[in-house]
Write a structure and sequence with these properties.
Keywords: Oxidoreductase. The structure is a single chain. By secondary structure, the chain is of the alpha+beta class. The protein is built from three helices and nine strands; from the N terminus they run H-H-H-E-E-E-E-E-E-E-E-E. The protein has a six-stranded antiparallel sheet with strand order 3-4-8-7-6-5, covered by helices on one side. Strands 2-1-9 form a three-stranded antiparallel sheet, with no helix packed on it. The protein is globular, with a radius of gyration of 14 Å.
Length: about 150
Amino acid sequence: MLRWIDVLTFAKYGNPEPPRRVEKTEAEWAAALTPAQYQVLRQHHTEPPYRNAYCRSYEPGRYQCAGCGSLLFDAATKYHAISGWPSFTQPAAPSAIRYHFDDTHHMQRVEVRCNVCGGHLGHVFPDGPAPAGLRYCINSASLVRV
């Protein structure tokens, strides 16, 4: 189980090695993704709160990266955070996510990306439920439920 100290350690000293890498040109990404997926995954945009596919969805399943199909989260770790975006307590595996410090928009946050393709997913915060206290706040456009 990952904790906030683990997230900070990864962001500061290096992320886990991914099981594989997917690299494409920007033109290839633009052709492979919907416009909304491209804006979120490749241009680091954030979709509107509460008006996204998985915000209020709690069906069983697993969530894969919309860019490369890598397993990112399990629905068993999804919870209602009242944030406006899907929220999870843990990634599917420690090596599923890449962490980066993000000081854009006059905030200090930790950005989360797919560790395989580098696609922007959202951010992680230390205000989630026990026992780990993590809240992965993720854009629905970056996910595909299977």
